[in-house]
Write a structure and sequence with these properties.
CATH topology of the largest domain: Rossmann fold
Structural class: alpha/beta
Strand order of the largest sheet: 3-2-1-4-5-6
CATH architecture of the largest domain: 3-Layer(aba) Sandwich
Largest sheet: 6 strands, parallel
Number of helices: 13
Number of domains: 2
Helix content: 40-55%
Number of strands: 9
Order of helices and strands: EHEHEHEHEHEEHEHEHHHHHH
Radius of gyration: 20 Å
Bound molecules: NADP nicotinamide-adenine-dinucleotide phosphate
Length: 292
C-alpha cells in the first residue's frame, strides 16, 4: 500500500514509524522539513509539498495540530491532487470542522474518513491505539486493513462527526481527571499529609483512575519535559469540547474555570510540556514544584 502522511509531529512521526515497520511505502511531508529526517532514515520518502506527497498515495493520512491547519494543508495545499484519494484524518478537530473538511474533500473528488485516536506515541509505535472512525461504511471497509495496523480494535461509530464527538468526550475526561487529581494532590501536600497513604486510600477506592498514577511522578517532581501530549493540545481539545457541548445545548459552566486556567499555560511557558503541567497552574499562589 502506498501511503502519504502529512504532519510528522509527536503523534504523526510515531504513526509513520509504525507504518514503515509494517512494510508500507510511505511518503512524508512536514512544514518544518527537518522533522522528517528520522523517518527518511527509516526508509520514508520526503516530499517538498503536501500535493507532491499526495500524488501517488492510496491513502493520505493527516496528523496536524488542529482544524484550521488541516483545512489549509489538505484543501488549500493538496487541493486538486485530492481527486481519487482516500483521506484518513487522525488529528483531533471539532465534529463540525471534520464535516466541513469532508465536504471540501468530496467537492475535490476525494473520500474522507475521520479517525481520531486515544493513546499516544508508545501505543502508536506498537499499533495499539484506540481508534475511532466516522464516515461511510464502504470507506471504513476499505480502510480496515490499514486501521488494524494502528489499532487492535478500530471502532466504526457512525457518519463523519461521530468519532470526533466521541474523541472530545474522552479528552474532556483527560482534562477533568487531571485537574481534579492535581488539586487534591496539592491540598494533601499543603496539609502536611504524606502522599503515599493518600494514594493508598485513593487506589483502593472507586474514585481511582489509572491516569493518577501515570502522572504522579511528574507532578511530584515538577518535570514535565519530553511530552507525548502537550498542554497546548489539551487546551485546544477542552475548548473544542465546550463548543460542541454548547451546540448540543449542555450546561458546561463547570468546565469554564478549567478552560480559563488552561488559557494561562502559554504565558506560564507550559504549552510545549506534558499536559499534566496543569499541576503547576493549580498550585496558585503557593510554591509550585519546579524541576531542579
Ligand atoms: N500526541 C498525542 O499523544 C496525540 C494523541 C491523540 C491525538 N493527538 C492529536 O493529533 C494531532 C497532532 O498532535 P501532535 O501531538 O503530533 O502535535 P505536534 O507534535 O504539535 O505536531 C503538530 C503537527 O502539525 C503541524 N503544524 C502545526 N501548525 C502548522 C501549520 N500552520 N501549517 C502546517 N503544519 C502545521 C506541525 O508542523 P511543524 O513540525 O512544522 O510545526 C506538526 O507536524 C493534534 O490534533 C492532537 O490533538 C495527539
Amino acid at each position: 500500500m502506498t501511503i502519504a502522511l502529512l504532519g510528522t509531529g509527536l503523534l504523526g512521526s510515531a504513526i509513520a514509524t509504525r507504518l514503515l515497520g509494517c512494510g508500507h511505502t510511505l511518503t512524508v511531508w512536514n512544514r518544518k522539513p527537518e522533522r522528517c529526517q528520522p523517518l527518511v532514515d527509516l526508509g520514508a520518502q520526503q516530499a517538498n509539498s503536501p500535493a507532491l506527497a499526495a500524488a501517488q498515495a492510496d491513502w493520505l493520512i493527516t496528523v496536524l495540530s488542529d482544524g484550521p491547519t488541516t483545512q489549509s494543508v489538505l484543501i488549500d495545499q493538496v487541493g486538486d491532487a485530492l481527486r481519487g484519494r482516500r483521506v484518513l484524518q487522525i488529528g483531533t478537530i471539532g465534529p463540525a470542522e471534520s464535516q466541513q473538511l469532508a465536504d471540501a474533500v468530496h467537492a475535490l473528488g476525494g473520500s474522507y474518513l475521520e479517525a481520531p485516536v486515544l493513546g499516544s506515541r508508545p501505543e502508536a509505535l506498537e499499533g495499539n491505539l484506540q481508534l475511532m472512525a466516522g464516515g461511510p461504511d464502504e470507506l471504513m471497509e476499505e480502510a480496515l486493513p490499514l486501521l488494524r495496523q494502528l489499532s487492535q480494535k478500530p471502532v466504526h461509530l457512525g457518519p463523519v462527526g461521530a468519532a470526533m464527538t466521541t474523541k472530545l468526550a474522552l479528552n474532556q475526561l483527560i482534562a477533568s481527571l487531571t485537574h481534579a487529581f492535581s488539586l487534591s494532590l496539592h491540598l494533601v501536600q499543603q496539609g502536611g499529609v504524606a502522599v503515599e497513604p493518600f494514594m493508598d486510600l485513593l487506589r483502593s477506592s472507586a474514585l481511582y483512575a489509572p491516569t493518577f498514577d501515570k502522572k504522579l511522578q511528574r507532578e511530584l517532581s515538577g518535570d514535565y519535559s519530553n511530552p507525548n501530549f502537550p498542554t497546548a493540545h489539551l487546551r485546544k481539545d477542552l475548548d473544542l469540547f465546550m463548543a460542541a457541548a454548547q451546540q448540543a445545548g449542555l450546561n458546561s459552566e463547570g468546565l469554564s474555570g478549567l478552560a480559563a486556567l488552561l488559557q494561562r499555560s502559554s504565558a506560564a511557558g507550559l504549552d510545549e510540556l506534558d499536559y499534566c503541567a496543569l499541576h503547576q497552574l493549580t498550585a496558585g499562589q503557593t510554591a509550585a514544584a519546579t524541576p531542579d
